[in-house]
């Protein structure tokens, strides 16, 4: 490990009352849904699991069946070949979803569809044999896996019906266009006798009316689909916004409506939710079910959801005012877990399992890290442990901040760029360091949300990017908790005359945490000599942070860890290897550590889908399940504690429970096996094993004696008291505390 880069953390873990008995905990009242008929909202898988595989491919359909809640609905978008065969394809134009343009590069045509000229390769120009034998599917959203492109055949409607999904939904988008070209979707449906088709939807009123009697005899539900409010419905030549004004009239030919989700929860230009419309209430009053479309884990939507797709579903099905009757989604397992597992989740539900939710600079995905707002949100979100990364100002004020360099996480560059300096012992680049500014100067700048994905265009809660106040260590300790920071004990001891270990011991003594038994204190560092200095204090549990990727933990390395620590904090990729956004395999590091009675924490988890492997379905909840239920870690360090807490409080996280649906961990490497051999990723070398030499650090240097003016050789400084010191220093100390459940949850 790097000798001069220490992570020094202090965790406080309150002992809590034992949870209720299993019988009492299980006595949860039945869910009451605000749907039209009081039934659980439907999960409708658009083209199967189209968030991973090409739409309506055999793999997409099979995975949807295997990962969705019981009773889910499979949706097929009906397209018709020139010889009248029904296909399941996303659109009437084939080039975005198939290899048609490379097979017939000069066959592009232009047709008028609903009054607009569209150019491309149209399904009506090809017979079924050509489509089945010469054309294959591709993923039609470029941020999704392309490794399966060109390997899967187009599915006929009968193929998808043959997979025997619990329910089947046929979407007929272009009846008027097909009729113009002497193809009749209605006659095609009659040839099938509507068998196995539970729902038919269309944006064309004339089509729904034409099949009404047949659908009624077959007990097939008809749904009218709304398009963009300014688009024109082909039968009536009215805008959909005008049709919306008379929902009662729709009841004459349909039992429900399908709308884009912003009909219900509109979003403003800044990407924040506006108040809900009355659409659902109005439709329910007219006796119509309401289905919402446009759900996908890998689409950027409102900042209100904190990049958590489950939060978006809950906004539509469990907001306390209304619930839609179903959601159309590209990621059916996420919709399934949101409805079945997370809806009506009371705030005081006990966690299933022992894993701790530890924050990374508070709820730093939503507010600037280490601010009062980030900490308060973490508490409200139910975090077990929140963290304070302690830095020092020039005049000796200890405060919470992620790093001594204020450049990236505050607005200091606009005011103090001339004060930037180089401190090679801390970082290779210049920085504006906290120990070069007074506390008054630090308070004159604003905190700023740090975002690891800025280069990709992702933002975090821009309306609050500078919100909150810096938190002093004294104020933080009043909260009764704490966390970790980047520090440099050797640099401080030899150059600044400040002993980090002494500061920590003094703070703990002043807080009487070394003399109590109700709280468990954890000390974390990536420097074994720092951990060794706390060996003489029995109440403390020591955590070694290993900030390099490892693939194995040999016995000699584990034995060395045991000399200095009781737990380790590991990178995600030390537990599950990842290449090109695919999980390629898993290590045995957790099992090896647990055999030696060493606890394992994993860091850092984030909600943004670009940080999440495809194997986790672009869903932070599946990643949590993979590390907690799959790998058995003892805690997760996250910037979005609400997501982790919701998962752990759900009964679906307990895989030992007999229940209709469970949130399953991903099987690393399994997704890649679906791809053809020629498309497989190149092999990557395994992570190196942890070397015992990486665990051993030389003793910390003695604290230098500095003169009162900051020069060496003078008398020692007055020992720091109550979290303050008398000299400027780069103090990188982290205090972490777990609140008693009585403080976090309603009793």
TrEMBL record:
Keywords: Glycerol metabolism, Glycoprotein, Hydrolase, Membrane, Signal, Transmembrane, Transmembrane helix. GO terms for molecular function: glycerophosphodiester phosphodiesterase activity. The keyword Membrane applies. Pfam families: GDPD. It is an enzyme of class 3 (hydrolase). Residues 1-17 form the signal peptide. InterPro entries: GP_PDE_dom (IPR030395), PLC-like_Pdiesterase_TIM-brl (IPR017946). The chain crosses the membrane at residues 725-745. It comes from the Eukaryota. Its EC number is 3.1.4.46. It catalyses: a sn-glycero-3-phosphodiester + H2O = an alcohol + sn-glycerol 3-phosphate + H(+). Residues 701-723 are annotated as: Disordered. Residues 41-339, 355-648 form the GP-PDE domain. This is glycerophosphodiester phosphodiesterase.
